[in-house]
Records
---
Amino acid sequence: MGKIIAIANQKGGVAKTTTAVNLGASLSLMGQPVLLVDIDPQGNASSGVGIDKNDLDRCVYDVLINEVPPEEVIINTEIRNLDIIPATMQLAGAEVEMVSMLAREQILKRALVPLKDRYQYIIIDCPPSLGLLTLNALAAANSLLIPIQCEFYALEGVGQLMNTIQLVQKHLNPDLKIEGVLLTMFDARLNLSIQVVDEVKKVFGTKVFKNIIPRNVRLSEAPSHGLPVVVYDPKSKGSEAYRELAKEVMGIE
Ligand code: ADP
Ligand code: MG
């Protein structure tokens, strides 16, 4: 049975998408069948694995709103063992439309059930909010991975995120676990980066992943080539860090 990991933090720009794409691709290149599920209307995870969103006539919106079977929306990427349910701007309207739907927080969970046997990992890239789309991801997931950027106000909003997790555990998904807290864009030359690491470890203790993702220019270049960095430049520091994270997630450090 596959494991569903939601990548969430309502703050934008903390490396949710970068982590979804590169953790997903690292796991898939290690031989694990992976499905990425893009539920951000920006569709950055989709373009990040080479999907041309203008070419799509269906996306995750159709799975959530029109009950299209997910099998009909899945695309095999060029990367071995890596499939995706893409998102387009059409998804921007979904939250409003879902409000009146029955069991509106459980729509994604129900849609993913038939896929759990096909994939070892299903990784959901969430939008930068705690709205209905993110709630659907948290209801569907076995665990939550929280990226935190080593920057000013790193922990801003984290309290609100923890409250949301508790509410989800109470009402929607009692088994939801925290997969881990991932420190991203670490710059060893900056005192601030080092302070953030200390602060986050104080709050989350052993929940913090041992592997910290360094700031690495290759990571920011890769999306414009429609490739995960682990494919675009496998030898870069960013690639190395995400492969190590994948091993940590698999429990083979
Ligand atoms: P989110 O999905 O949380 O909004 P992204 O993954 O899109 O965040 O990352 C925000 C920006 O930071 C992107 O331009 C991305 O390429 C860049 N980025 C992410 N991680 C790193 C890193 N470790 N080093 C350098 N740039 C990064
Ligand atoms: Mg994103």
---
Amino acid sequence: MSKFSLQGRTALVTGGARGCGLAFARGLAEAGANVAIFDVIDPDATFENIAKDFGIRTAFYKVDVSSQESLEHGFAEFQKDFDNAIDICVPCAGINRHLPFLEFTYKEHHDLVSINVLGLYFTAQLAAKQMIANGTKHGSIVLVASMASHIAVRSQLCSAYCGTKGAVRSMCPAIAKELAEYGIRVNSVSPGYVRTEMTAAFSHLIPSWEADAMNGRIAEPEDIMGACVFLASDASAYMTGQDIVVDGGVTRW
Ligand code: NAD
């Protein structure tokens, strides 16, 4: 079997109802994994087709990753339905807020941290505990960070968001070190500008963001899917604690 194959594996993607999370769910399914998604909104209509397009199993759970109760309840339901199987976890649920640093409030900042940092961290923790309990030989956690953890993204007014993504990227090697003894790998993906609802909300702040990328365009969600599938698969078996930046070269010039 190809080292890129995820056949027979079970994946969880948070924030999988649309945007990058939906693309990750589709990519993992295309490589053969069964995929469960957690989200606070109903999934995009195309989610329904994934199971039949790729002959795998999908499920959606309404879960707010920033609530311990909702996350733990949703995870227990997911595990009951999937016979306690989990090999891949992609905590992707995230939000952004655009305010000048001097105007950020505790409430706005708290919302960002609750979802982007705590939600991601405890999703990964639940997944890791279950991977250890079920003894998977293919445990892989792919944290969704951002190009915004590498650079001060132009005109975005998102200092708090950058901080949350920096937290994701710096917790990655620390968690990787602790989980290495269980054979579980932990890496992150840092997308650049991706065309999603999140970026639509601030596109007016960056009138010429295509020009920031070497290839002159912003990414579609499918453009960042491959890095996630690669990190989830045995093709990346020697990688852990690393970050892959998929940004059309924005951070490199
Ligand atoms: P999006 O807004 O299209 O999708 C985010 C998804 O997360 C939505 O389905 C939303 O309902 C879900 N979500 C939000 N709060 C949640 C919660 N409390 N519990 C469960 N689900 C919740 O955004 P996107 O652009 O697809 O972003 C996905 C991830 O990629 C985020 O972590 C984001 O920070 C990251 N990212 C996006 C870009 C980009 O340019 N779009 C760049 C770098 C990183």
